[in-house]
UniProtKB/TrEMBL annotation:
Residues 139-204 form the HTH luxR-type domain. It comes from Vogesella aquatica. Signal peptide: none annotated. The modification 4-aspartylphosphate is found at residue 58. Residues 8-123 form the Response regulatory domain. Gene3D superfamilies: 3.40.50.2300, Winged helix-like DNA-binding domain superfamily/Winged helix DNA-binding domain (1.10.10.10). Keywords: DNA-binding, Phosphoprotein, Transcription, Transcription regulation. It comes from the Bacteria. Pfam families: GerE, Response_reg. This is Response regulator transcription factor. InterPro entries: CheY-like_superfamily (IPR011006), Sig_transdc_resp-reg_C-effctor (IPR016032), Sig_transdc_resp-reg_receiver (IPR001789), Tscrpt_reg_LuxR_C (IPR000792), WH-like_DNA-bd_sf (IPR036388).
Length: 209
């Protein structure tokens, strides 16, 4: 499955032999990999602006556990998909992590096909997140070009109000509303009200507004 090969996979596990086996397998499938021997080591090198990624994360490690690292990343607003690696006794913890937003978990021992399927699914999710973030950035830039009046018209248009109602609300003529509406649509790069609504709603969802 060719998806998001440019997104880096971070392996965080204190077992060197296990890290090396995952590294060999994933690099043989042309993925970009970075290995870390501890949660603390990952956090030391982690930079929020370093782009998209996903994590293969041992749930139980000396020092900071995988779950604690996951919670810390969540607190920092990181939304990278996480695949937890777990032993049989830690499956209940992994299930709870998935319920809290983790992407998936694999119980040792697992086969290569299961790992690759989980990675492809996580990378597809990461790619969707990256695309959504890019589109949200474009929308934000376009919104910033609107005048105060154009933004007032936009808010009423996405509420489904007709031009006459908008004119009454703002105390301006219908022709003036039409002029502002046309300029606003051009600046937002949309051709229909449906496109406008979808664009603004997706942006607000991405920003949590």
């Amino acid at each position: 499955m060719t998806v998001a090969k440019n997104i880096r996979i971070h392996i965080v596990d204190d077992d060197e032999a296990f890290r090396d086996s995952l590294l060999w397998l994933l690099e043989s499938h042309d993925y970009s990999i970075e290995c870390h021997d501890s949660a603390e080591g990952f956090l030391h090198s982690y930079r929020p602006a370093q782009g998209s990624g996903c994590l293969i994360l041992d749930i139980r490690m000396p020092g900071m556990s995988g779950l604690e690292l996951y919670d810390e990343l969540q607190a920092r607003g990181n939304t990278w998909p996480v695949i937890f690696i777990t032993g049989h006794g830690d499956v209940p913890m992994a299930v709870q992590a998935v319920k809290r937003g983790a992407h998936d978990f694999l119980e040792k021992p697992f086969n290569q096909e299961a790992l690759l399927a989980a990675v492809d699914s996580a990378l597809a999710s990461a790619a969707n997140q990256a695309q959504s973030a890019q589109e949200a950035g474009q929308c934000e830039a376009r919104l910033a070009t609107l005048t105060t009046r154009e933004r007032e018209v936009l808010e009423r248009v996405i509420e489904g109000k007709m031009n006459k109602i908008i004119a009454d609300d703002l105390g301006i003529s219908i022709k003036t509303v039409e002029a502002h509406r046309g300029k606003m649509m051009d600046k937002m790069g949309v051709r229909s009200i449906a496109d406008l609504v979808q664009t603004v709603v997706a942006y607000r969802q991405q920003k949590g507004r």
